[in-house]
Amino acid sequence: MAYLGQPRTLQELLREPPHSLEVQSYAPKEMNGAILNADGFGLAWYVEGHLEPARYRSVLPLWADENLPELAPRLTTGCLLANARSATPGLGMGLANTPPFVRGRWTFSHNGYVRGFRERVMRPLRAALSDAAYRGIRGGTDSEHLFAVFLDAVRDASPEDALQALVDRVRALAPDEESLLSVLVSDGTTIWALRHGIGGPAPSLYRSAEGADVFVASEPLFDGAWEPLPAGSIARFDGELALREVA
Fold first, then answer.
1. What are the domain boundaries of the chain?
2. pLDDT of 36 above 90
3. CA Rg, the chain, in Å?
4. CATH number assigned to the domain with residue range 2-245, chosen from the 4 options 3.60.20.10, 3.30.200.20, 3.40.50.1010, 3.30.420.10
5. CA separation for the pair 24, 20 (Å, rounded)
6. Model confidence pLDDT, tens digit, residues 180-200
7. Alpha-carbon separation of residue 114 from 78, 141, 166, 226, 230 (angstroms)
8. In what order do the strands lie in the sheet with 213-217?
9. Is residue 33's pLDDT more than 80?
10. 3-state DSSP assignment of residue 136
11. Among 14-23, 88-97, 162-171, 228-237, whose mean pLDDT is lowest?
């Protein structure tokens, strides 16, 4: 999930909604291929006066972490990305593999997978990365490697074009594999979202706007006017919505 708008506590964003991310970690409604999001969680939030986000991650399920109930009511942000993880088999556990991933001002979270990543995609993808992007990788997930592709592309392109470049790279390296790509990216002032599927249906992703406040989530967090983002689209949220199709 992601949020952009007036400052709210992490408690309001992560734990209080009726179908909050905490609830989705143990009772998701639209999850395919697994039952729970129990393989750790992470959140990154932006604080006024700091370009780079703060981040908190745990290998525990979100519902089992004993620190978050104490921290969440006391931390406030106008921009948040959070992820409750269901690990892709074979890609490993641990903090290094737990999203969201952060580099400089950028925060990145991916819901989905690139099938056959370690067997057929990982090595050629890494070979094409810049030295800086390669050195920044700490874990072994497809998600963090997609972030590295995004970081290389966004140096000379808009975030929308960098997300398109991410899709192009996956399509080129894994044309016959199923790749599910629900991606959220932020720099603290804007949220970008990619919803796309290659060889399979795009993972669910919804948006809800309350005035200037925007929520984006895999499943609606509360009752209201939630709209699914179109499959095969890239969206930008910065007070207004801009949509474009994935080429």
1. 2-245
2. no
3. 17
4. 3.60.20.10
5. 6
6. 999 999 999 999 999 999 999
7. 31, 10, 12, 28, 20
8. 54-58, 41-45, 76-84, 2-9, 213-217, 206-210, 227-228
9. no
10. coil
11. 88-97
Residue 60 pLDDT more than 80?
yes
Is the model's pLDDT at 97 over the cut of 80?
A: yes
Rounded Cα gap, residues 156 and 170, in angstroms: 19
Is the pLDDT assigned to residue 143 strictly greater than 90?
Answer: yes
Which tokens go with 172? 């080129």
For the four alpha carbons of 237, 225, 14 and 147, in that order, the dihedral sign comes to: negative
CA pseudo-torsion sign 123, 127, 132, 135: positive
- The verdict on whether omega for the bond into residue 100 sits within 30 degrees of 0, i.e. cis, is yes
The 241-245 sheet, strands edge to edge: 101-103, 106-114, 179-186, 191-198, 233-237, 241-245
What are the tokens at 77?
């942000």
Contact 21, 65 (CB under 8 A): no
* Mean pLDDT lowest among 33-47, 64-78, 123-137, 147-161: 33-47
Give the global pTM.
Answer: 0.95
Q: Which residues contact 49 (CB under 8 A, 6 or more apart)?
A: none
| N residues, the chain | 247
C-beta separation of 41 from 83 below 8 A = yes
Pair 15, 73: CB distance under 8 Å: no
